[in-house]
Amino acid sequence: MEFNAYIDEFEADWRLSGHSPVTGRTYATYVKELAATVDGPVTLAAAKAWLAGSVSAETARARGRAIRAFGKWAAKNDGPEWTWWPQVPLAGVAATPQPTVTRKDYVAALKAARTLRDMLVIELLWCTGMRVSELAALQTDDVNVADGFAVVRQSKTGRPRLVPLSEQACRRIRRHIPADDGRLLGMTAHAIQQMLRRIGAPSPHAWRRGWAVHSLRSGISQTSVQTAAGWTSGAMVNRYTSAVSAELAMHEFRHRFAT
After folding, report:
1. In CATH, what number does 3-87 get?
2. 0.70 exceeded by the pTM?
């Protein structure tokens, strides 16, 4: 089998395993780029040299993860003999504070919103944890205000999921006039981002992190947050909340000791 055929099979298996199609495509692209730098079989030395030429530590780490993922898959599926894959180094990346929306930001954004639709966007970002692309694609028929949830049919992982709707969101949805094309908001992802910039609100991803932190602080279990967010493992929950983990722990202890 040609090497590229192995990569295509790896990407297909990645998708079938329920992992993010975007990540699978990125990993496959990286492995193809690595293979194109050498004549013949890829060796550990060649992989390290390719990693060393990365433009940043973040890129080197992503490349290393791609090599490891492909090597692990190859070992289990009679692929190329990349038995050296566990020795591929992962570049260290310094953790930087990520913008995370707080309740104060949420209240300020509602006050700055100019229209009912803008206020609905803010409410949905705060209570659902949806990605901006998912919010833009949300159909009116996907919303169930009676039971307080919405269906995200097009997610990053390719699998649908349910997201919660707050009482405030349900009230605003009832008052909102949906778009003629069936979408609830009738806005593109870019339009939503532009609206947030216009009113001085944080970016969509900061809202997603804020939703995760606020949910955990409110007593929602990590499993429920993971499920509603559409994450395949708890690692993403930890990644999103690592900067405030100590604060969350103290909040939970204070709550428990007070009861």
Report:
1. 1.10.150.130
2. no
